[in-house]
Amino acid sequence: MPDPKGFLRYDRRLPRRRPVSVRIQDWREVYPPAGEALIREQAARCMDCGVPFCHDACPLGNRIPDWNDLVRTDGWDTAIEALHATNNFPEWTGRLCPAPCEAACVLGIGGGQPVTIKQVEVEIIDRAFDAGLVAPQPAPAPSGRTVAVVGSGPAGLAAAQQLARAGHAVTVYERDDALGGLLRYGIPDFKLEKQHIDRRLDQLRAEGVRFVAGVDVGRDISAAKLRERHDAVLLACGALAGRDMPTTPGRAKVGIHRAMEHLVAANRAVAGGPEPAITAAGRHVVIIGGGDTAADCLGVAHRQGAAAVTQLDIYPEPPSTRDEERDPWPVWPWILRSYPAHEEGGERVFAVAVQEFVGDDRVRAIRLAEVTVERHEGRRIVTPVPGTERELPADLVLLAIGFSGTDAVAALDQLGVPLDPSGAVDCGPDWQTGVDGVFVAGDMHRGASLIVWAIAEGRAAAAGVHAYLGGDGSLPAPVTPGAQPLGRR
Ligand SMILES: Cc1cc2nc3c(=O)[nH]c(=O)nc-3n(C[C@H](O)[C@H](O)[C@H](O)COP(=O)(O)OP(=O)(O)OC[C@H]3O[C@@H](n4cnc5c(N)ncnc54)[C@H](O)[C@@H]3O)c2cc1C
Ligand code: SF4
Questions:
Q1: Which of 220, 449, 451 to mutate to test the pocket of ligand 1 (most atoms within 8 A of CB)?
Q2: Ligand 1 centroid vs 182 CA: distance in angstroms?
Q3: Is 103 in the pocket of ligand 2 (CB under 6 A)?
Q4: Helix runs in 305-450, H state only
Q5: Residue 486's pLDDT band (cuts 50, 70, 90)
Q6: Which residues, including other chains, have CB under 8 Å from residue 439's CB and lie 6 or more apart?
Q7: CATH 3.50.50.60 segments of the chain
Q8: How far is the CA of 25 from the centre of ligand 1 (A)?
């Protein structure tokens, strides 16, 4: 029985972030640990609603009210079991998920303050690691079947763990020199320190998963070889083909880069690699785009010592609170989202589009115009407002304008798996592509999305592979291939 008055007694409170002046001097995570008293208080705000909408909003179906009540009553050891029952890697979602569960929390109705679900999640798993409660769970007996997982992001790793625990011999192939997908060199350490990946990899190894890094499937090993070696293949190669602006005048000038070129080089340097070739130090940086990638570029630019940073968004500034007509509770609302990186400085400019990159060899400025954006038959129509053009100084420009699907085309060609028009790979209800024994999960299937969806798809696709291999019983499948965020059709 939850505390019926917890939400009346306590306001929503998050732990204090590290001060901006301190944290931009280093690459450590922005949040210090929250402390037990605060988390138990916050968990006590959960009402354990008869119909917990937070469950439905979480693609993993995390049993949120169960673990909130366990935390409230000091049952941390049981709480981690409840959390792991649905989520292989809560230390990643607890740090990085945008928390659609919180948007669907009943306490948020009418502008109220939802439970700090994601903060409770991360504290449960961090405490469990500290207490030595996250032990390997090797399968009791081998199944005699083998699976190749291509890609070591959250989708590939979730699938690998599920399949290894079911007794299958799993090998994960990764083209990068280090494992973890976008979590390794895409997402900066100030959002996720890399020991949170490494200790999970140790667990997976102890459960029997084999990792082969530095091997690009389709180039270093043929897809035919992979199929010969394994009874099933699961593709989890992400959606890493970055969008560009090839038709914008001046795009070829020096100093204009895709965001990932900047982020990956910076994150590699933090991991002990060479100094990045692209640095924001002393530069007037302009970031084009408004999502996670843009915010990560912003945080990196400040840590590298940028002279000024401006973030441009083509869309108008969203409202600060939910527009009930447009996005009624409990759907994910269109609101202004500010990341910790936005506290650290920089200016955000909305409803503008780049008309030209200006300069000689190197970019010196951006000519931009205010715009309106409309949708017509699924297409985006951007119209400049006459007389609004102006120049913005810019000697480093980062394009964070999204991804256009997978870039693992060689492997797909060799397997005979087609791409859909959005650059994603389609599959049947069992996650099998049109090719027998070849499955797909994560961003490669869904298009660029979120970690929580990647883990959910990895788990569900593992269930499909397990059934295909004739494994005993069934594995949990939290989502179907057509699943959409709560409220979206
Ligand atoms: C900068 C940035 C910040 C983000 N921040 C957040 C966030 O804060 N919260 C959130 O929820 N989501 C965030 N995302 C999205 C999230 O990272 C992805 O949705 C998630 O990582 C997808 O997981 P995945 O396993 O499908 O693919 P990925 O993580 O992309 O992993 C795919 C892996 O496959 C490998 N691969 C590809 N082709 C081959 C091949 N032929 N052979 C071998 N290996 C191959 C790649 O090298 C890569 O390691 C962010 C994305 C970016 C780009
Ligand atoms: S994974 Fe995301 S949606 Fe699910 S409970 Fe955690 S924060 Fe909420």
A1: 451
A2: 4
A3: no
A4: 340-343, 409-415, 443-446
A5: confident
A6: 232, 233, 234, 235, 427, 430, 431, 432, 433, 461, 464, 465, 468
A7: 146-240+404-468, 256-399
A8: 27
pTM tops 0.85, yes or no: yes
User: Residues 122-165: pLDDT tens digits?
Assistant: 999 999 999 999 999 999 999 999 999 999 999 999 999 999 99
Q: Report how far ligand 2's centroid is from the alpha carbon of 34 (Å).
A: 18
Query: Fold for domain 256-399?
Result: FAD/NAD(P)-binding domain (3.50.50)
User: Does the domain made of 6-130 have the CATH classification 2.40.10.270?
Assistant: no
Eight-state DSSP code of residue 153: S
Extended beta strands in 252-325, E state: 256-258, 284-288, 308-312
Please classify residue 21 by burial: count the beta carbons closer than 10 Å to its beta carbon, then call 0-12 exposed, 13-18 middle and 19+ buried: exposed
Mutate to test the pocket of ligand 2, among 42, 58, 102, 449 (most ligand atoms within 8 A of CB): 58
Q: CB of 91 within 8 A of CB of 127?
A: no
Verify whether ligand 2 is closer than 6 Å to residue 60 (CB atom).
yes
Ligand 1 centroid distance, CA of 307 (Å): 30
Cα–Cα distance for residue pair 14/241, rounded to 1 Å:
36
- Average pLDDT of the chain is 96
Under 8 Å between Cβ of 48 and 65? yes
118 lines ligand 2 (CB under 6 A): yes
Residues with CB under 6 Å of ligand 1 are 96-97, 150-156, 173-176, 181-182, 186-187, 191, 216-218, 236-238, 240, 263, 292-293, 296, 408, 411, 442-444, 449-452, 454
Give me 204's structure tokens: 């997976």
With tokens 């700090």, the residue in question is 116
Report how far ligand 1's centroid is from the alpha carbon of 281 (Å): 27
Distance 272 CA to ligand 2 centre (A): 31
Rounded distance, CA 42 to CA 36, Å?
Answer: 10
If you take atom 2 of ligand 2, which residue's CA is the nearest one?
99
How would you classify the pairing of strands 390-393 and 363-376? antiparallel
Interatomic CA distance for residues 217 and 408, integer angstroms: 8
Backbone angles phi, psi at 99, to 5 degrees: 65, 65
Task: Identify the architecture of domain 146-240+404-468 in CATH.
Answer: 3-Layer(bba) Sandwich (3.50)
CATH 1.10.1060.10 segments of the chain: 6-130
Q: What digits encode the pLDDT tens for the residues 27-78?
A: 999 988 888 999 999 999 999 988 899 999 999 999 999 999 999 999 999 9
Rounded to 5 degrees, φ, ψ at 257 are -135, 155
pLDDT at 489 over 70: no
